[in-house]
Every structure is written in structure tokens, then in C-alpha cells.
Specification:
- The chain contains ten helices and four strands; from the N terminus they run ααααββααααββαα.
- By secondary structure, it is of the alpha+beta class.
- It has one domain: Outer membrane efflux proteins (OEP) (Up-down Bundle).
- It has a four-stranded antiparallel beta sheet, covered by helices on one side.
- Strand 3 and strand 4 form a beta hairpin.
- About 35% of the residues are buried.
- The N terminus is likely disordered.
Length: about 450
Amino acid sequence: MLRVLLVSSLTVLLGCRSAQQTDVPCVHHPAECESTADGRPVGQVRPASFTDSQPATPERPGPEIHAGMALADFEVLAVQCNPAVAAAAARVEAARGKWVQAGLYPNTVVGYSAGEVGILDTAGKQGIMVSQRLITGGKQRLDRAITARQVDRAAAALDAAHRRVLNDVRIRFYDVLVAQREVELTIELVRVGEELAKASSGLRQGDQISEPDLLQAEIEAEQARILHDNAVNNHVRAWRGLCAVVGTAVSEVTFVEGDVEQHAPEYTWEACLEGILREHPELDAARAEVERARLAICRAYRQRIPDVDLTVAFRHDNLTDGDVYNVQAGLPIPWLDRNQGNIYRTKSELSAASAELRKLELSLEDRLATALRRYDDARQQVRRYSDGILPRADKSLRLVQRAYGEGQLDYLTLLTTQRTYFQANLAYLSALRELRQSVVLLEGKLLSGSLSARAP
């Protein structure tokens, strides 16, 4: 008889639980609760690939950095090794865990029940009880819908982290390329300075130039060596920065393969702004937060609907030697606490989330304006240097060097021409660096700073 009662009790409880899985019409503000922003009914969430077991961390291959690596090689290493991507991916799994937990039904309580113990020196009524809380009003579906938006937000943050890492790798890679070019340029500058100092020494021995001219040539040669040392140090700094963003230990400085002078695409304000407002991951995260806040308002209203605590008990009455069955159901009456504070809070959170979304849109417009200005300035400088200034500086240097060797020009003219040539080349490389950084940011939705960006 006890076994039959237990089976019957569990059947009743499970039947009540199944009834809760059907759609419950929304009460209070139905327009806010009928569907989510992407058209899915409340409680109908995207599938989440989640297992009860701890997700296994894949073994990452050790970094292999060698000379001649291209940009794509460093990008692959960065995705594998940069901790920002791993941290964002872990936060996605944590959000999926919340989604799973939000959909779990309260555990059934099974216990011992006794009553009227000691009456007429008997054991009274002894038996078991089964209790189950029944969630009403579709609150469980709303909890899952809310946590699904948190999963969306975490996924958008993962996308942003991935883009930040790739953009940082590209920026640092081009820094290394430009630093390599600066090292090559200063090597040439040192060679020219040493040759000029040697030639000036010979001219001084023949009394063709003065002692101050010889000293100035030797000073210029030493200053060229200083510029070369600075370029080498800058190359080391750029290399270490690249290794940091990739997420690998700093290895021996090597030269990389790439073209820093590749063609720069055309950009317009309208096209860039449209692309950013349509696909930017930070905006996706902000929109998910607005949707979460909207669903939280509906959830706060649903909290007014009380849950039912159902208890079924079976006891044997030792006094009468009969069996007693008890069924008890209770629910709180929402007349003192109607969740007013949480409703007010969630409405304020929705207002704040909407304002933050608009603020982010304006911030992206401002950042885009700055990035486009930097791009236009750098592009114009690169074009003017490559098309006009550098060819003229090269031609002028060759003519002056030949005339100086023939004794037709003084040393000051040669010195001025050499300085102009190398300063123009250094300025050209600086403009190239600025151009490449601007292109990376415009192509990468203005995202950078993977090692300094705060976790959402």
C-alpha cells in the first residue's frame, strides 16, 4: 500500500510539473512580454551546447616563432595563446551554465513525517511525505530568456575580444615592419656618414676643406650611429610588443615578411558608420543588455503570481492500525509584497541600458571621426612622399654627392641635402605606420587594446 501511494504521489507531482511546461499567457504589460527583440517567443532561446561535465581545456600547441613569419602566422598564434580570447570564451561558457541552471526545476523534497506520537502510549502516526514547489506564471521560461540574453552578451564580448586581438597583432606587426625599414635606412645613413667622414679626411689632408668641415663630418657620422642604435632599440621594442600581444614568451628578435606599402583602400564616412552601427560587437552586447532589461521587467511583474507548495503525505496510524493520507497545498498571498521595488528597479535598469546603448553609438561615431581623420592625413602624406618628395630628395642627394666629390659644392650644402633625404624617408615611414594602423582600426571596427580592455 505504501508503494502504491508513493507512485501515485510522484505521478501527481510530475503531472503538475509537466503542466507548467505549457505556454502561459502573459499577464501585466503583454506588449512587453510577447516576444524578444529577435522575434523569438519568451522562453524560446537559442540552443546552447552545454554539458554537465566541466568543459575540457584543449591543449594548445607551443608557439613556434622563426624568421620570415608573415602576418597570418602571428594571427594564428595569437588566437591560440592570447589570454583575452580564452577569458572571453570561458565567460561564454559561464553564461551558458547560468542558462542551464535557470531552466532547472526545484528539487523534490522527500522526508519523514510523524504525528500524535505518545498518545495512549503508541507511536502515533508514522510515515513519509513528498513535497514539491510548482513554479507558476511562466517565470522559469522568463528566467531562461533573461539568461539567454546574457549568453548573447558574452558571445558578443568574445567576438570583440577576438577582433581586438587580431587588430592588435596587425598593428604591432606593422610596427615591426616599419622598425625593420628604419633599421635598414639608418644602416645606409651610417654607411654614407662614414664614407663622407673618410672622404673629408682625405680632402683635409689636401687642404681642400677646413678643419671645422672635417669635424662636422665626423660629428654627423657619430650622430648617424646614434640614430642606428635608436632604430635597433625601437625594433626590439616593437618585437617585444608583438610577442606580448601574441601571448608568447619574448624570443630572439627576427625579421618578418610583409609589405607595409600595400595599397590602402578608399573609405567613406557613410559606409564606415553604417558598417559599425550594423555589426559592431560592443553594440550587439549593449542591445542584448537592453533586451535582458526588458525581459527583467516582465519577470518582475510575473513574480506577483505566487508559486504553489504541494505536499503529499502517507502515515500509518498505530492507534487505529489504519492508514492516513494528507494532501496540503499552500501559496503566499501577494497583498503586502507585490514586488514593487523590483519592478521599479528593472524599469530604471531598462532606461539606463537604453541610454548606454545610445551613448555607445555616439562614442563610436566620435571614434570613427578621429580614425578617419588620421587615415586621410596619413594617406595624403604617404602619397605626397612617395610621388613627389622622396623621388626629388633621392635625385637631389645623388646630384649633390657627385658635385661635392668633384669639388663643385661646399660641405654645408651636402650636409643639408643628406639630412633632408633621411628626414624625408623617416617621415615617410612614420606616415606608413600611421596609415597601416588607421586601416587596421577601420577594418576592425575601431577595436584594439586587447591586453588592457576591461572584461564586460
